[in-house]
Fold:
Amino acid sequence: MKKFFVCVMLLTSYTNANEPMLPDLSGDDTCVITSMKKVINTPLKPDCTWSINIDGTLKTKTINGAEIAVLIGKAISKNEQAEWNVENLSHCSLQSIGVKLDKNGSPESVGKPLNGLLICSELHIDTKVYLSYWK
Structure:
């Protein structure tokens, strides 16, 4: 049993070391981004999630030399999903915020929140949206 546990731990460590980790999210009233370096409060309502690629990695875009990720706020209701025709997507929201990452992929700062623009975790995000977080 110990050998199996050690193998799983080594495999997990190896996997984590080669893939960028998603910063932790928490918060009861608003979403909080937690990393080894800092804690960043956001105005987004939980349950938040990151915009991700098909393989589960964090979706980012380089804007003006900075790596930007998108944090998505509280998911829209089933009725809103039907109105927007996104019933088959797992997490769509009308709240999002850009998160600037440092060279190690840790959250550094957040931009201004966007409200009313539908963002889905699995869909492509246009460069104009990334730019909007810092206008």
Remarks:
- Residues 21-132 form one domain.
